[in-house]
Design a protein that fits this description.
By secondary structure, the chain is of the alpha+beta class. It has 2 domains: 4-70, Arc Repressor Mutant, subunit A (Orthogonal Bundle), CATH 1.10.10; 78-259, 2-Layer Sandwich (Beta-Lactamase). The chain contains 8 helices and 9 strands. The longest helix is centred in the first third of the chain and has 31 residues, at 72-102. The radius of gyration is 23 Å and the shape is elongated.
Length: 262
């Protein structure tokens, strides 16, 4: 007898019940019995779910009142999401201003697990439409955006990332040697910006620069993309790109902007 369908339905039901508990505790602190009553849930199921959620720090139990409340893991996840929302909100006017000035597509990206993740993008139509979208990832080893996101990482940290996630070749121009990549990062630290010349897409060249928060950490980067080196000439684009990253960094509380590499 095939019970896989039954198990899937049971697991889905369990997830829904756990989410119901979280949504309930998001409104007010409650005891186990109050949760059972509000959700019409039996005590055994509620006890099991509460222990699981508590063990993962999604909820906490006040030993004095015996009531449960939202845990620090929820706060951590919410803070991370709100930080992205704040970043996008603060950055967008300056991204629009930058695109209007340089007439090239721009991307706003953040670091995640060996990749740069696009969190905002502005195209120029009909001149150029890049094959990218918000939420898409691009490896840090073959993108100007990714390189800028790592400019404050130590050589040891970068080596660990490259070792963990690899350096696959996407084009003949992709950097696949860790030492060469580390030299690129060092050069980027000295210049305050990074480039890639067809390293992820053979016909796309990019220039990027980092964005800093109030504590001096790189929290994002902006890249400008074109279809040849002339179009992404740093001599022409860099003043406008750095002006945008400095303004956004300032909005996020940074005092030093692009001079905050060391």
């Amino acid at each position: 007898m095939d019970t896989s369908g039954h198990n899937e339905k049971y697991q889905a039901s369990t997830v829904v019940k756990a989410l119901d508990i979280l949504k309930l505790l998001g409104q007010k602190d409650m005891s186990a019995s109050e949760i059972c009553l509000a959700l019409d849930m039996n005590k055994t199921t509620a006890h099991r779910l509460l222990l699981t959620l508590q063990g993962e720090n999604f909820i906490e139990r006040d030993e004095a009142t015996k009531k449960y409340r939202i845990g620090l893991k929820i706060v951590e996840l919410s803070s991370s999401r709100l930080a992205d929302v704040e970043l996008i909100t603060e950055a967008r006017p300056f991204l629009l201003e930058l695109v209007k000035t340089i007439r090239l597509p721009v991307h706003l990206g953040v670091y995640s697990a060996g990749n740069a993740v696009y969190v905002d993008k502005i195209d120029i139509l009909p001149k150029i439409r890049m094959y990218s979208q918000i939420g898409k990832t691009i490896p840090v080893h073959c993108s100007a955006l990714g390189k800028s996101l790592l400019l404050k990482h130590s050589p040891e940290q970068i080596a660990d990332i490259l070792n963990r996630y690899g350096m696959p070749a996407f084009t003949p121009n992709t950097i696949t040697d860790p030492n060469t990549y580390l030299r690129e990062i060092k050069e980027g630290q000295e210049k305050g910006y990074t480039t890639d010349s067809g390293e992820h897409e053979e016909n796309v060249c990019c220039i990027a620069a980092p964005i800093y928060n109030f504590s001096g950490h790189i929290v994002a980067a902006i890249s400008v993309s074109g279809f040849n080196r002339e179009e992404t000439d740093a001599t022409l684009l860099l003043p406008h790109l750095l002006a945008a990253t400095q303004k956004i960094s300032s909005r996020l509380g940074s005092n030093n902007g692009a001079n905050n590499l060391f």
